[in-house]
Amino acid sequence: MKKFLIRLSLFSCIALLATSLVLMKYGGYIDYFYLKFTTPKQHSFILGDSRSFQGIQPRIVDAELKDKGFELPMFNYSFTITQAAYGPAYTESVKRKMDPDTKNGLFIINVNPWVLAQREKDDFENGIFMEADHPPHNMRWVNMNPNFEYVVKNFNYLHIRALFKQNSELHPDGWMEERNLPKDSATFVGWKQNQYKIYNGFAQRWKKCDYRIRALKEMIQFLEQHGTVVLVRMPVDEKLQEIETNFWPEFDTTIEKLAKTTNVSYFNLLKNNKYKTYDGNHIDKFGGVAFTKDLCQLILKQKNSPNIPHCALPKK
User: Fold this and answer.
1) Close Cβ partners of 164 (under 8 Å, ≥ 6 residues apart)
2) Helix, strand, coil shares of the chain as percentages rounded to 5?
3) pTM for the structure as a whole
4) Is beta strand 168-170 parallel, antiparallel or unpaired with respect to 176-178?
5) Fewer Cβ atoms within 10 A, N terminus or C terminus of the chain?
C-alpha cells in the first residue's frame, strides 16, 4: 500500500508538472483564463464579463492613453458571464492582482444587468455565491508561473482540442481574441438567436439585485484609492437591449445614481450599434479596435474636462 501511494503521488506530480509545462507554452489556446493567473501584479484593469473580455483591448488602451497620466499597461481581468459577477470575491481577487503601490491606475468596469443580478444559487444572507467555485473567485494565488493551484482547482477549463483549432487565443494582457467569426449571414443569425435564448433564460431565472450594486460600490471605492474609475455599458443587439430593459427597466438610472454618488464617470454606450459584433452580443476583434479607441477618447475628454456630466450617452 505504501509503495502504491508513493507511485500515485509521483505520477500525480509528474502529471501536474507536464500539464503546467503545456500551459506555459500553449496556455493561451487551451485555457482561456490560465494566463490571467501567471502574470505579475498589475496597475490598471478592465473588469467585467465576456463583453469586455473580448471587446476592450488593452494594447489599444496602452497606445491611445500613453503618457496621459495613467499607470499602464492595461490588463484585462474580465471573465465570462458564468464567473463574472460583482461581489466580495471579485473585489478580493482584484486586490490580490493589483500592485498595492498603484496611485494612478485606470479601472474600466463593464456593467450590465447580468453581472449585477442575483442568480439562482445565490444566498447572500448565508454567504453563498453562485460564482464561488469558479476562477478568479476560487484562486488564492493569482500571480504565479506556473500556477499549480489553477491546474488543480480548474482543470475542467482546459480544452486540449482547442490547441489544434486555435479559434480563440488568450493574450498575455488578458484579452480574449475570438477568431472563429461567422462566414455567412445564416451563421450570424443563428448565433444571435442562440444569444437571445441564453439571455431570455437568465431573465427568467435571475433577479434584480441591490446586494451586488452595493458590492460594486465597495469595489469602486477601493479602486478610487488607486486611480481613475470608469463605468461603461457596452453596446449589444437591439433584441438583447430589449431583453435587458424588460428584466431591469431602471438599471441605467440605478447606475447613474451610483456613478454620481461615487463621483465616477458612466458612459452608457448600449445603443451605439456602429460596432460590429459576431453574435449580437460580443464586439468582434475588428470592431473592438474602434470601440476601444472611442472609449479612450471619452475617458480623455472626461479627464480633461471634469465639468462635463459624468453620466452621459455619447452621440452616435
Assistant:
1) none
2) 50, 15, 40
3) 0.90
4) antiparallel
5) N
